[in-house]
Amino acid sequence: MTEISLPQDPALATAVLEIEAHVAESGWDQPSRLYALVDTARIVEQEPDLASQMGLDSAAADGSFTPVEQDALPDQTLEVTLESIAWPEEVNGCAAVVERLVLPPGVDDEIPDDPAAAEEFAREHPLRQEVRIVAGVTRAGATYCALRLRAHDDDSSVVDGTELVPGLLALLRSTLEVEV
Questions:
Q1: Which region, left, alpha or beta, applies to residue 56 given φ > 0 means left and ψ of -120 to 50 means alpha?
Q2: DSSP code, position 70
Q3: Cα separation of 69 and 78, whole Å?
Q4: How many CB atoms lie within 10 A of CB 163?
Q5: Distances from the Cα of 129 to the Cα of 103, 112, 124, angstroms
Q6: Which burial class, exposed, middle or buried, applies to 60 when counting CB atoms under 10 A from its CB (0-12, 13-18, 19+)?
Q7: pTM of the model
Q8: Pick from 55, 59, 61: nearest CA to 11
Q9: Distance between CA atoms of 130 and 100, rounded to whole angstroms?
Q10: What is the pLDDT of residues 56-103, one digit of tens each?
């Protein structure tokens, strides 16, 4: 019997899947995006006009996150950008969207050491797959990811789970750590 893995935090899973569906509406070849995840109840309580404009009410607020997209990211990789970000206390979590090329496991030894050559190798490899990754974390330590392959670009083919992209999740987690 296969055991089903449930998300640690259903509110985070819902937010990640909402972001994935929203970004999917714009198609492929999109820039990386970054979202603050804010407790919806806090928005309803502290910003009632904004909540009303967003269609949020107290019923929707209970135990949910509202993704707030951040301004355009600097002209550098998402990974480099994340190294310089620290979220304020009011942000309960964060999520990132990034498109990447994925190669099959058997070609790791063939990838050149030079980053530019490695990128060209990946772009030209016949077995490459384009993937959109949405990864989210909370201050409480929950994680969730959604992956969509360009070759299987439909809602029913989105793969989701808690630890699908550990490296990106670790970077996101570090943006929420409070330095003492």
A1: beta
A2: P
A3: 14
A4: 12
A5: 6, 18, 11
A6: middle
A7: 0.84
A8: 61
A9: 6
A10: 665 555 678 999 999 878 888 888 899 999 999 999 999 999 999 888
Q: How far apart are CA 169 and CA 134, in angstroms?
A: 10
The answer to whether 22 touches 158, Cβ cutoff 8 Å, is: no
For residue 144, what is the enclosing H or E element? strand 143-149
Sheet-wide strand order for 93-102: 65-69, 33-39, 93-102, 129-138, 143-149, 159-161
Phi, psi of 7 (to 5 degrees): -65, 150
Query: Which of 92, 115, 81 minimizes the C-alpha distance to 40?
Result: 92
Residue given tokens 């030894």 in the structure block? 109
Q: From CA 134, how far away is CA 154, in angstroms rounded?
A: 15
User: Which token pair is 105?
Assistant: 């496991």
- Locate 98 and state its tokens: 């990034």
Phi–psi pair at 4, nearest 5 degrees: -90, 130
Q: Which pLDDT tens digit goes with each residue over 125-145?
A: 888 889 999 999 999 999 999
Nearest to 133 by CA among 122, 121, 144: 144
Contacts of 41 (CB under 8 A, 6+ apart): 58, 61, 62, 63, 64
